Amino acid sequence: MKHAAPVSSSRRGFLRATSAGAAFMLGMSAEGVLAAATTMSGGPDFVPNAFIRIGRDGRVTLISKQPEIGQGIKTSLPMVIAEQLEVPWRDVRIVQADLDTARYGPQGAGGSTSTPTNYENFHRLGAAARMMLVQAAAESWGVPVAECAADKGAVDHAASKRRLTYGALVERASKLPVPEASLVVLKDPSTYTLLGTRVGGVDNAAIVSGQPLFGIDVRLPGMLYAVYAKCPVFGGKPVSANLDAIKAMPGVKDAFIVAGTPNLNGLRPGVAIVATSTWNAIRARRALEVQWDEGDGAGHSWADFTAQARAAASKPGATSVRKDGDVAGALSKSAKVVEAAYSYPFISHASMEPQNCSAWFRPDGTLELWAPTQNPGSGQALVTSTFGIPKEKIQLHIIRSGGGFGRRLSSDFIVEAAAIAQKVAAPVKLTWTREDDLQHDHFRPGGFHFLRGGVDAQGKAVAWRNHFVTFANRVEREGKSVLAPGSGGNLSGDEFPGRWLDNCELEQTALECRVPMGPWRAPGSCVFAWVFHSFIDELAHAGERDPLEFRMELLGNRDIVPGTGERGQPYSVARMKKVLSVAAEQAGWGKKKFARGQGQGIAFHFSHRGYVAQVAEVTVSKDGKLKVDRVVVATDIGSQIVNLSGAENQVEGSVIDGLSTMMYPALDIEKGRIVQSNFHDYPLLRMPDTPAKIEMHFVKSDYPVTGLGEPALPPLAPAVCNAIFAATGKRVRELPLSKVDLSWS
Amino acid sequence: MSTYTLNINGKTQAVDVEPDTPLLWALRDTLGMVGTKYGCGLGQCGACTVHLDGVPTRSCVLPVSSLGKQKITTIEGIGAKAQHPLQQAWQELDVPQCGYCQAGQIMTACHLLKQHPKPSDAQIDEAMAGNLCRCATYTRIRAGIHRAAEIAATGKGKK
């Protein structure tokens, strides 16, 4: 790393330094820490806004307002302020904010939005503070502001060779008005010294030395530990349980039924066990006998869902999401017609840190929460709507999450902890077991796509029809009972190649189910890209065309293609063609010769404002073992990479996550229950399957800076599957890949 | 409940727990040493890896009553100031994403470097196959182990 990590990356180091209550390790609020800092540095700090605090000792504290889930936002957004503020990164201390949207603005981490929604503003915040410090220095010297310049935590007056540190300017700067947004002067990007470099995560030192950091690490005085058993069938509830026997077990303090609510996204009914340690609670849980009312979800099975989907395929879709031209007519005139069915299973998020939350309900009716969440505001709102605890009586500490992937956008674990805490006269930590986590997720919906496409005599795509069979929960909306497709299970009419082909029909049928569904990294895109870019490859092959050339022709020559649907996004053809050509060129597309069993595949996808193209190179052994030898990724997320190391981490992580997800995990549903329970029957990719080479190219464009938690994942699966086809002639139409025979002779 | 005397990171520590309590939970809940992580409770993911007389062991399936006088080493014991070559390399190369599995990764890698001070990619893949990383930091873990081997050999890390 070019830049060393900040001196103290977390409030813990600071707490140790001030000996302010070691028992509260992760328990103190950000503002409490900052107030303590003020008293230490000999007078009030310079606090130009909610995100910057400079002490009289020159210490710079920056607030990270967004939840950190491994996407690196706790490092990257403060970097933006540090760049404009002209402070050396190693002198900066980062403190995680609590939930306080009135003070900090929205604080959810999802949809790769943290960067695009905060980037410009964070530049202005840093620059405004810098201008005030420069002005303070100019006034104290009696020289024009234009003769002064900020540099490494100080202001210089070159003409007189004078220099004042920011610490020395705190008093004077604090009295100055904050400049209006329109008057704030930002640095010229060509003068950036921090943005675009590789900076290590601010919590890395704590991570590698095992310091308390994650939600599950929270410890409070007199804390008790809870587990929570829910009905294995979704929508079911407990009728009775052997609570007296459970309460008599070692270390068990209490056991009780929580009635819950019918909302699949709310407080699900269950049985709570509270004990003196997590293990005492887990041991008792193993002896728990519950009579469940399973409800009508007990009839669900994946086999039945598959049969329903096939039956639906022979009929028109329940809803039409796009209808352009005359697909039937165009297909009848096509030189070649391709028909194919693609499917993929329900999967879990499986973050390494299982869901957990600590809660402390006090006699005065206040509730304090420590939550590893992506969605703190929503968690607080769910607690309020479920229990009637007013917002102002809830304090929520945002704690670092051991992985998110969209799982922690749901707040079930928060509302469960809140329910248990109200029955316990002590702080309590609820921990989900791995089995709970895998079987009671808000799952990525499975899906079925029934496709027909045609190419003309020149091998050009002329028609596309897709009937997408997806899953929906029945929910109440404005007093009406409606079917709501799961997150990522709702096809937009604008999904490529919708908007590009004159003859295009997209239809959707939703199967009603009780399976809870939620956003999974790049919702929708993470599977649609696989289906559509695999089928585009099928059409290219039918037209006897080069897959890259076929795609370039399909993208065409329009500049910006406007969005049409309610979720439509404008799509820059030029940006996509650029990343596609960069990936192809860097991979040596069309120039390399491959032996049978080896090949290249290509795909691109636009998601979460990012343009990404990938070329995969694979080797498939005769007995069907897949090895991904190389992945070349070209990414355009705008005019600036914030933290190059973080960006590379997100791209590499997305590529390998994409590969893992296509190769291994699948959930079966039988009798309304998830069959798999832990990593022995729900495998994920491990190091031996990791590609030897992942090459990353960032294409800068003159567009706003956008996020990278998601866009690099979707193109991986189709790039690999298209490479498998090139290598073996086998077309993968069902995931996971581990269930597909890839052997060849 | 019984009292068990454990040798952890060179210190003798007494814990009062039920005999079936896995070392993981004795460390985390009883002793407040939370660097060792719960991931699966089945010995499948490696997040809870500690050393037992220097050998990587899954603490989530290791009852405290089965322990004798073995020396237990946890992530807190290999370098509290983050100066072990692996800890230095992990920071230099910015290996962690969410970071949750990394204590277990480092404990496994630590043993690998003792066996093979200059491991090949194949040796790394084999040694590390028991440790899951959901963020998929595998390429950087590989690079981090190579870099740690270099730091250990030369005694030089970048500041």
Task: From the structure above, extract its key features.
heterodimer, A: 745 residues, alpha+beta, Aldehyde Oxidoreductase, domain 4, 3 domains, seven-stranded mixed beta sheet, six-stranded mixed beta sheet, 19 helices, 29% helix, 24% strand, B: 159 residues, Ubiquitin-like (UB roll), DNA polymerase, domain 1, 2 domains, five-stranded mixed beta sheet, 6 helices, 5 strands, 16% strand
Shape of chain A: globular
CATH topology name of the largest domain in chain A: Aldehyde Oxidoreductase, domain 4
Count of individual domains of chain A: 3
Q: Mean of residue pLDDT of chain A?
A: 94
Shape of chain B: globular
Write the layout of secondary structure elements.
The complex is a heterodimer of chains A (745) and B (159).
Chain A: H1 11-18, H2 30-40, E1 46-49, E2 52-54, E3 60-64, H3 73-85, E4 92-96, H4 101-104, H5 114-141, E5 148-151, E6 154-157, E7 162-165, H6 166-174, H7 204-208, E8 224-230, E9 237-241, H8 243-247, E10 252-258, E11 270-275, H9 278-286, E12 290-293, H10 302-313, E13 319-324, H11 327-333, E14 336-344, E15 356-361, E16 367-371, H12 376-387, E17 394-398, H13 412-421, E18 428-431, H14 434-439, E19 447-455, E20 461-477, E21 480-485, E22 503-512, H15 525-542, H16 547-555, E23 560-561, E24 571-572, H17 573-587, E25 598-607, E26 610-620, E27 626-636, H18 644-663, E28 669-670, E29 673-674, E30 693-698, H19 716-728
Parallel strand pairs in A: 3-4, 8-18, 16-17, 20-22, 27-30
Antiparallel strand pairs in A: 1-2, 2-3, 5-6, 6-7, 8-11, 9-12, 10-11, 13-22, 14-19, 15-16, 15-18, 19-20, 20-21, 23-24, 25-26, 26-27, 28-29
Chain B: E1 2-8, E2 11-17, H1 23-30, E3 49-52, E4 55-58, E5 71-73, H2 75-78, H3 85-92, H4 102-115, H5 121-128, H6 138-154
Parallel strand pairs in B: 1-5
Antiparallel strand pairs in B: 1-2, 3-4, 3-5
